[in-house]
Specification:
alpha/beta, 434 Repressor (Amino-terminal Domain), Rossmann fold, 3 domains, 6-stranded parallel β-sheet, 4-stranded parallel β-sheet, 12 helices, 12 strands
């Protein structure tokens, strides 16, 4: 049976209110010798403070909520790791919710974090082009009660955070692939309703167009490893990859590129000998692939760390930091 605060107070010879001030973090501090007696009694009895009581006393739960689409995706787990490291030594804990890319689950996660009285909420990942009316209304109420909100990757109209230059970074990748001598391209662009997927495809295609190069294929599908696999299977079935001049396939994220790589291997094709391949994000698992895969590197852990530090600091709630990706050329796009 859990030890009650009243038992700690009795063992320390103080009132329950005094014991609460010591153990729940009130600004009203009893004398040091009294506080020492209360802490000693709590340790002796094995008392664990009630987090909700602490939050009420000090008007802070010492919690930050992070909402991601898929914690199994290395993109999001890297951001979460960076956020955790950014909180090190602050006394604030990170709570995590994974939505599996469902808008309803995102709203439910925000409601849950609100009920836990979290001090801030971070929302990571691509957003759709539709209106976030309900989410915006919830976040407005949350901010009205003193909570802080930041976005990672895609902005909301009313929130700041860390924004990624998807279009410009994808354009830089296209520039480098053209410089290598690639002239035949296919784009596996993900779901058109996702801003991240749409922006990356748009930046890449705009650069091709300005160079007078028309893509052979632009495919749309799931923004996942399975989506990349399925789109590559369909691409191979169309026969477009079998022409004499090598095709370079750009996948708008790395997990899609890994799915595409699996489909190529199943078809008995080699990268880069038969088909060149590039992704976007530079997730940690990319370093274990053979051949090594060209991509756009995002400082994912740094983005997570920056986001929580914005929450811990006094930056304007609408302040946005734009992060540009760095093109990394590896074996998968080699021509010779």
């Amino acid at each position: 049976m859990a030890v009650r605060l009243a038992e700690v107070a009795e063992a320390a010879g103080v009132s329950q209110a005094t014991a609460s001030r010591v153990l729940n973090g009130s600004n009203r501090r009893p004398a040091p010798e009294v506080a020492d007696k209360v802490r000693a009694a709590a340790e002796r009895l094995g008392y664990v403070p009630n987090a909700q009581a602490q939050a009420l006393v000090r008007a802070s739960a010492r919690l930050i909520g992070l909402v991601v689409h898929d914690i199994a995706d290395p993109y999001f787990s890297s951001i979460a790791r960076g956020a955790q490291r950014g909180l090190a030594g602050s006394g604030i804990q990170l709570m995590l919710a994974s939505t599996e890319r469902a808008a309803e689950a995102e709203v439910e996660a925000v409601r849950s974090f609100m009920s836990y009285r979290t001090d801030a909420i971070l929302l990571a990942g691509s957003r759709g082009f539709g209106d976030d009316v309900l989410l915006e209304r919830l976040l407005q109420a949350y901010r009205g009660n003193g909570g802080r909100v930041a976005m990672i990757g895609q902005p909301l109209a009313s929130a700041g955070g860390v924004q990624i230059d998807n279009e410009g970074s994808a354009a830089a990748l296209a520039d480098e692939l053209l410089r290598l001598g690639h002239r035949r391209f296919a784009v596996l662009s993900g779901e058109p309703e996702l801003q991240t997927a749409s922006q990356r495809a748009a930046g890449f295609l705009a650069t091709l167009k300005s160079a007078g190069v028309m893509p052979e294929v632009v495919s749309q599908g799931a923004f996942t490893r399975e989506g990349g696999y399925r789109m590559m299977v369909d691409l191979l079935a169309s026969g477009v990859s079998g022409e004499e001049r090598k095709l370079c396939v750009f996948c708008v994220n790395d997990v899609m590129a890994l799915g595409a790589l699996a489909a190529l291997r199943e078809a008995g094709l080699s990268v880069p000998e038969d088909v060149a391949l590039a992704g976007f994000d530079d997730i940690p698992t990319l370093a274990d692939q053979y051949p090594t895969i060209s991509t756009v590197r995002l400082p994912l852990e740094e983005i997570g760390r920056m986001s929580v530090e914005m929450m811990l600091g006094n930056s304007d709630a609408s302040h946005r930091v734009v992060v540009e990706g760095a093109v990394v050329l590896r074996q998968s796009t080699r021509l010779s």
